[in-house]
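Lab notebook, bench 4. Still working through the backlog of constructs that have no structural model yet. Next entry is a single chain of 182 residues. Request: give me the structure tokens for it.
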Amino acid sequence: MITSASPSTLKFSGRSDARVMERPLEILLYASRWLLAPIYIGLSLALLALGIKFFQEIFHILPAVLTIKEADLILIVLSLVDIALVGGLLVMVMFSGYENFVSQINIRDGDEKLEWLGKLDAGSLKQKVAASIVAISSIHLLKAFMDTPNIPSETLMWYVIIHMTFVISALGMALVDRFNRH
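Model written out:
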């Protein structure tokens, strides 16, 4: 609707009315990012659960370390490495997800700051997650290969297929990311 009679000062009242409604909606949408914060807190609780499981495994193996077979010890150590990789993945997702989607993490001057904090965008995080999944899958595959007498060949075949799917997916995401940057 035109509200001004002069051609040089034509104004559309519909635009200002739309802006009055648009601004609160934008504020609400922007504030809704804080709904992610409890999810990141939940991930920190999952990290705590992983830490408990890690030390439970350590305390379980220590009394038997002198009597356990080397292959069994290697499998347990691989499980511990697996837990550590998942823990690192959780930390990356928590911190960079929070910084990318909720709010910047403010660290006081003089406090220790992770070098990568604030540098991982969503694309970089996605690639690191994919690489971590491939590493975790590799450990599971290695554990399966070390226990081949007890695992059916068809199951091993599916482990390899699933692992290769993770590898190809990670490579595909890296390629797509590289093409998008150019």
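Notes after review: Residues 38-104+117-181 form one domain. Residues 46 and 52 are 10 Å apart (CA to CA). Flag for follow-up if needed.
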